[in-house]
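[User] Could I get a sequence and structure tokens?

[Assistant]
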Amino acid sequence: MKSAFLIAAPTSGSGKTTIARGLMALFTAKGYKVQPFKCGPDYIDTKFHEAVCGTPSVNLDTFMATPEHVSELFSHYGDQADICIVEGMMGLFDGYDRDMGSSAEIARTLDIPVILVVDAKSAAYSMAPLLKGFLQFDPRVRISGIIFNKVGSDRHYHMLQQVCQDVGICCLGYLPKSQALETGSRYLGLDFSEDTSSDELLALIESHVDWKTLVSEESKFSYSKPTVSLRQSATLVTAKCQSAVTKPTRPEKVLIARNKESFSFLYTEVIDSFAQPQFFDPETDTPDLTDIDLLYLPGGYPEKHLEALVQNESCREAIRNYALRGGHIIAECGGMMYLCEKILTDEGEYPMCGVLPHRISARSADRKLSLGYRHFELDGKEYRGHEFHYTQFTETPESITQVYNAKGEPVATPVFKWKNVLASYTHLYMSPKLGDDRGLNNHKETASSDPLPPNLGGKGLHPIMLAGTGSDVGKSIIAAAFCRIFKQDGYQPAPFKAQNMALNSYATPDGLEIGRAQAVQAEAAGIACHTDMNPLLLKPSSDHTSQVVLNGRPVGNKDAYDYWRTGTGFDYRRAVCEAFDRLAARYNPIVMEGAGSIAEINLKDRDLVNMSMARHAHADVILVADIDRGGVFASVYGSIMLQEPEDRQRIKGIIINKFRGDMRLFDQGRQMLQDLCGIPVLGVVPYYRDIFIDEEDSVSLEMKRRELAEGKVNIAVVLLRHISNFTDFDTLERDPRVNLFYTNNTADIARADIIILPGTKATLDDLMELRRNGCAQAIQRAHRNGKTVVGICGGYQMLGQTINDPDGIEGGNITSLPGLGLLPIHTTMTSEKKTQQISFQFNGQTCQGYEIHQGVSSTDEPILQTDHCIGTYIHGFLDNAPVIEHLLKGLTTTATPTQSLADFKEEQYNKLADHVRQHVDMARIYQILSE
């Protein structure tokens, strides 16, 4: 039996740190073994906990770790203690989003009582409603005692005791006003210097606080939860990621920079995750890095100790040489600053290691606080941590990935990866957040069974372009397969399509827009999507015009003839080439995709995406042909023969796609095609039906049309002429409880259980058509009859009261139309396009999605619900299990599918890669890309 409690407060500055420190010191002085903990990502308070208790303090954080892992930490580190004291942060219910990540969430997770520290200065019975509100706000949080701070007199305290008696809470004592107990501030937090009156604090705690109750076996503060083993999966995030075959599960020889201040920000759990970590002081030591698996440079205050760091030139040189020869380094905040070229202060410029070509300003004029939780994706893994610093870059460096705060909003924090160095201002946490190991060294990819490519550890591969004999031959899917194969084989591939024409688009992490196919290919490659992967996107708004999206932002509507023939006044060729160059500098190989047919000789002088792009990239071209549509010999031969001699030489192989039937029947045809074209057939890929990859083109919708089905929930997606982002419904379509079909038949709409109005590139035009064909009236009747109606993006706008386009943003002749009147919103089309990835709450659970739309509606609610009608701008809304279960509630009794969307997608990408590996000569592909 032990005691355990969390010390919290209504607000910051109430005195919880002082009282927590005092109780820790008192119990330690009386011979109890105290295990301190700190809520949140705080390095400074934990250092003072350790100084008081003689035991390292442990951080507990439900943003950076799972609740299960937080419980494991508490049990593991508190197992041998007599008393576990958890110091809260900020106000009790203050989190990064409402009370998420708050001290209250920690208390609920650990199921331990809370002692509330209340600043009683200038207050008496007014404390009653305050305490009553805190006690009743969340019954799951057990506030079991009150300690008052800054009490003016004994009479004042007696009044406060009466308050506690009236509201029904135990009063555990108080601290009187004392100048000696005031804590000042230092560079990055509170100041507990050695001359602080610890003896006076100890005496006041002992005489004024009922500390004996806190260790009584009969009190509310006793704790008897069973011990839980700390999972071995909690391993440090490292940059050891180059070989998919030789990745260790954890580095064995780890060297950590650590001293009193300049490199002092370390989580206890990180240190304890290694069997025998070694330490060195960059101010005084020259480290031996000969056989080190990982060099870890944590944060601290290097800007306060620059002269010592500069004088130890041998240490900086050893680290620089270690990085140059490919040593694995992770550097956080101060550690990253130490790797940079220089640190600038008001006193001068100080050279650092010079591994990163950046300069950091610690000048007083540039001092600016950057604070908060951070998360980002890299190589298909999610990283979580926090940021806390005042220094700044002297320039705006380019980041290899977009970093977000806890609410999913982009922040400007850069992340650097050079050779095997990973560096950022973000202090990274090392625990499993989402059920699997996080970290560059612990990917769970399965290495290919093929022999390793001859240059896996050496030079890079040429770019590869998947060009086509026509549209819809399968270029996008084959490109996705190659992205996953290269990733599995230890490379860092990235997709690229210079120009894409599609209505199905996607929002990048930094809030810009690219074609959906490149987002899918990036996902297959295990990296975050970026506009450099698809710098030019054309979104058709009619048969003759398209919206032009350049580098993720719309730049206007263009007539097709004007775009292709007469010139536009903008150098698109230069823009797409620059995007490719930026991408190629960061990834290898680049998996390029052509567009349509490579033999459109009438558009050759304007070609941006096929052979002209292959020439710029010095790419090896693989021609993809669809045998299912017939005429494969003529289409392949003609596509090659219509090329100029220089371009013909770039075509290094042929892949025949979508073969049906016995593969042996094409053996002779394969040889004939090779003899005819003088180019090898590298593979014949069979048609498949059991692999599900997001489609780019709405051509596939014709194949998806189905009828109503018995025994399932029938969901009708209204088939619009300008439908966009139809991948919003893929998750629903795969749900075994659902029969989802596309229709503009009014009888089908009437009989469906749920009707969905999808997104569209031409909201007003499609709304007008719905009125003409009777679908609008059918939807309204179905809603009156109790059917659920859902609107996504443009469909959401149609469900409102009115849609206005006074400036002709959509390019049509309609300036205003009444909506279907099912939602209380009015929408006005605007020139500004909103594009962002977002997190949102639905039925108490956090969900993910993205927005791509023009138009502003008269509500701030991300999701608008009325009686059996839901509208939202969020694409991906229906990919979230809480949303699907809400929609299907009462319509089916079948068990909920358990596989997550992320796991499903990973499974499909791996199945696709296996399918293509089996039927394509990958050894020959690697040879071509290496010659």
